[in-house]
Amino acid sequence: MKIFIVGDDGPEHNSIHSVHRTYEGALKVWNDLRLGLLESAKSSLKRDGLSREMWQRMVNNLSSEDPKKIDNYPHETPYIQEYEVEE
Predict the structure, then answer these.
(1) Separation in Å, CA 8 to CA 2, 83, 86
(2) Where do the structural domains in the chain lie, given as residue ranges?
(3) Which of 38, 39, 44, 71 could form a disulfide with 62 if both were Cys (CB 3.0 to 4.6 A apart)?
């Protein structure tokens, strides 16, 4: 049986948010997580003039809708990991 883990990885953490039986369920939660991080980056971009390039890079990185292609390193990056487990 396969399971799918949704989490986010950052410079000092790796957080698991949920575990799913289907990829579709994991993808929905992953997208919600990605959109939250994207909104936060957009908000910071509007108010932080000194780090504008960094926030713009994060907005560009988090705009990807493909979990396999997204890369926001070294900042928080949402992910889906697939595992095979025994019942």
Answers:
(1) 20, 16, 25
(2) 2-84
(3) 38
- Distance between CA atoms of 73 and 22, rounded to whole angstroms? 26
Q: Cα–Cα distance between 85 and 55 in angstroms, integer? A: 38
d(CA 21, CA 82): 10
Question: How far is it, in rounded angstroms, from Cα 85 to Cα 40?
Answer: 35
Spatial distance between the Cα atoms of 78 and 10, rounded to a whole number of angstroms: 9
Summarize the confidence of residues 16-43 as an average pLDDT. Answer: 96
Strand order, beta sheet including 77-84: 13-20, 2-10, 77-84
Q: What is the pLDDT of residues 29-42, one digit of tens each?
A: 999 999 999 999 99
CA terminus-to-terminus distance, the chain: 7
SS3 32: helix
